[in-house]
Design goal:
Layout: E1 11-17, H1 22-30, E2 38-44, E3 50-55, E4 58-63, H2 64-67, E5 70-74
Antiparallel strand pairs: 1-2, 1-5, 2-3, 3-4
Length: 75
């Protein structure tokens, strides 16, 4: 399942990143989005175009288009 389909407040584990843009992929890796890391969706915007996620000890807002490229499974 992809990150944008996760239930709120449920801890997931990233199993793959299908991102073609190398700069974006490297930036996400720098802030903790890598295979094996735990991630949690804390909230979504009203139209579900933005997600507030927690990775490691930090929170980030990411676009739903990016979240669709992150494959996860429940931990």
């Amino acid at each position: 399942m992809t990150l944008n389909n996760c239930e709120k407040n449920r801890i997931c584990k990233i199993i793959s990143l299908d991102i073609k843009d190398d700069k974006l992929k490297f930036r996400l890796y720098e802030i903790g989005f890598f295979v094996g890391s735990q991630i949690q969706v804390l909230n979504t915007s009203f139209l579900k175009k933005t997600l507030l996620v927690q990775v490691l000890d930090s929170c980030f807002a990411i676009k739903a288009d990016i979240a669709k490229c992150i494959e996860v499974e429940y931990a």
